[in-house]
Write a structure and sequence with these properties.
Largest sheet: 4 strands, mixed
Mean pLDDT: 95
Oligomer: single chain
Low-confidence stretches: none
Order of helices and strands: EEEEEHEHHEEEHHHHEEE
Strand content: 25-35%
Distance between the termini: 28 Å
Length: 269
């Protein structure tokens, strides 16, 4: 079985409250894009994980795909071992949710492979145990997200008339550090309403709280955003806590911008 976990972008992101459990409440809009990894799951004598493409850091035993298998196996001990191969194409530490998507798609793949017939709600409950934005990748459609990012309200947001440019300069922004730079506050506007207005109205309204401290620390990210606007973007912003910058352009009108050769660049028409 082969599935293709896709990335997401954040459209607006506000940190609204520090919780007693140490996490933060936030609000954002998740929007899926077809930049994908490839995840292969086959029956095997033992549970194994290996990867190709972009290097996956850390111990394989702690990979979210392995953790997803172990999580389901607690409730479904009949699950037989599988060999997992992940071809990594979505940049890591870019604010694009690649690891969360891999975990969510692993849950869906296992439910299908072993005929567990898990409902969307059940899969989302499992996904929430793996990461705050993992549940989004179960329905995998535009959503307004609150709580830690796991409380999802579907949106009828259709950006099919746009093209997207994702640029990742290889910088890793530490998420914990990024959160420590933010003073939670009530947003100045209603994101859930503003996001439904035309994209060309977003530029001076829809914002990401992480941009100011992250751009101050990594000016190259601010330069990438500025270059997108200088070359015809309707809207541009950092995704999540970084460090990918997303530009939204009129359909099939992404400018041919000359980026540093070390940057990872993805175009979605």
């Amino acid at each position: 079985m082969i599935v293709f976990p896709n990335c997401k972008i954040n459209l607006g992101l506000h940190i609204t409250r520090r919780r007693d459990d140490g996490f933060h409440d936030l609000e954002t809009v998740f929007y899926p894009l077809p930049v994908t990894d490839a995840l292969e799951v086959i029956s095997a004598p033992a549970l194994t994980f290996n990867s190709s493409g972009i290097a996956v850091p850390g111990d394989a035993a702690d990979n979210l795909c392995i953790r997803a298998f172990r999580l389901l196996q607690q409730d479904y001990p009949q699950l037989q071992p599988v060999a997992i191969h992940l071809h990594k194409h979505i940049p890591i530490g870019a604010g694009l949710g690649g690891g969360s998507s891999d975990a969510a798609f692993m849950l869906k793949a296992l439910s299908s492979k072993f005929q567990l017939h898990l409902s969307e709600a059940a899969l989302m409950d499992y996904a929430a145990q793996l990461g705050s934005d993992c549940p989004f990748f179960i329905p995998n459609r535009p959503c307004y997200a609150t709580g830690r990012g796991e409380i999802l309200t579907p949106l009828s947001l259709d950006l099919s008339s746009c093209s997207f440019l994702l640029v990742h300069p290889g910088i890793h922004v530490n998420t914990g550090w990024a959160f420590r730079q933010i003073t939670p506050q009530t947003p100045a506007y209603a994101l859930q309403e503003k996001i439904m207005e035309p994209v060309d109205t977003w530029k001076d309204v829809i914002s990401n709280d992480f941009e100011q401290p992250v751009f101050r620390e990594y000016p190259v990210l601010a330069a990438i955003k500025a270059a997108m606007y200088e070359n015809g973007a309707i809207y541009a912003a950092m995704s999540g806590s970084g460090s990918a910058v997303v530009g939204i352009f009129p359909k099939n009108k992404i400018a041919d911008i000359r980026w540093d050769a070390s940057y990872l660049v993805y175009k979605v028409s």
